[in-house]
Predict the structure of FBD-associated F-box protein.
Amino acid sequence: MERMENENPDRLSSLSDDLIVSILSHLPIKEVAQTCILSKRWRNLWAIVPSLCFDIHDWKVDCEKFNDFVGNFLLKRDGACTDTHIFRILCQDIMHICDSFDAVCSEANKWITYAVKHNVKILELSFDGYCDLDIPDCLFTCKTLEALKLDLYDSNFMELIPSTIHLPRLRNLNLDQINFCDDNLEKVILGCPNLQDLSMENCGLNMSKFSCHSVQRLRLVGPYTSNETISISAPCVQILVLKCHKDSRVILKEMPKVTQATLYINSSKYEREYNCHLFRSLSGVKSLDISSLCWEEMLKGEMQKCPTFQFDSLKFLSLHWIGSDPSGCSLDTWSAFIKHCPNLEKHSLAPLEKPCEEFPFATIIKGGSILFGYYYYTKLYKLFNKLIFYSKGR
């Protein structure tokens, strides 16, 4: 035993540099920097770690220490001539508790420029709103960037983007809490010719339309729109997620390639006219997940306007009701709709919230069989019985 210990006193250091660097990539950046004091072997390994994540909360929201660490880290690493595959700066929820937050925002320009200079592939910027953030123009012409996430709370994107945008390799674009006006959003999309995934969450969309012709996966959650209706053209989209509040006015143009769609929309009766465009645009969908407030209004309008319309390709259908009480679900509307789905194989029911132990997920399969766990609501029990009746009567 003693002989084996002498032969392998430090098994971790005996690993290859590539394997050690891979391990370091999963550690907090402060711990990565501290490994340089372990031994001569470890002295410079921290400098070739390709994944860098600077989270100000790791410094207990001390903006001065955070600025000093990031600046010194990148300065010393610059001499290693190492590419930076992943670069993240996370500075959310600190504006009201950090007196020198503006200093962080002013330094961010240099840090972003460093990432672009070192051939960054994945970049994430998360900052509080109302800060004086200056994004360098070089970010919008980065030739190596493949994925970009911008979480800029309540910022005006018009003031951040340059006149020229060209991101030839960008495939994934995630925008959170950003305000767009006029043609700014479309300008960004046109500058990303190979964009495949577009996600927008809680963004302000003050425009009448926008197009994304290369996008294959579109996620639009909680958009804030102006009084006018927004028309979205995305002919190549295959996976669609649309979660809107009642004030969002969205019309989807023809999307013949959509095979999977999630629609959570709080529609109002007076909006039934334009909401009917949603289902007509998804005629080829195979899997559909909708909320009760969405289908309650939209299905009625759709079936009234086009009683012969059918989802010929639809095989999987999920219904979610809002809240813990399913009594507001119209069984007549539900039964009428599934008659428009001749090839339906499976449809399911669940509350919109994540199912818990006392409120189970229920699955109804074409032909009348039903699988469910324990339940405690008599209304839910009556609903199941009625649904079994409707399913058997098809």
Observations:
- The two ends are 74 Å apart (CA to CA).
